[in-house]
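Memo to structure team: turn this sequence into structure tokens by end of day. - J.P.
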Amino acid sequence: MKLPIWLKPALFGAVAGAIVIAFIGFTQLGWVTGSSAASLASKQADLAVVSALMPYCLQSSVNDPAAAAVITELKAASSYNRRSIIEKSGWATPLGATAPNTALAQACQTELSKV
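Reply from structure team:
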């Protein structure tokens, strides 16, 4: 079986074009792999949960009778200990959860440190 003479350059052109399109797509057009998309979606979901629960954490700090002591301890603590103070206070534990949300605790301590 004889192949037409034009077939070899056409196949090379198609392969080279596919490589160029893939390179441009991933580097310039924002294409991502499935695992990268899943990772980005997970991060966005975590941020959404934190922003939705932030008012709960701040309201819990207002309603807690021991809030003044916790805020004083929070202001006196070093920056790497503040999250654990919020976690221990229970302000970063959403209703129905058994453990505190660490991202919520971090965001909450940042907001409470501004006060």
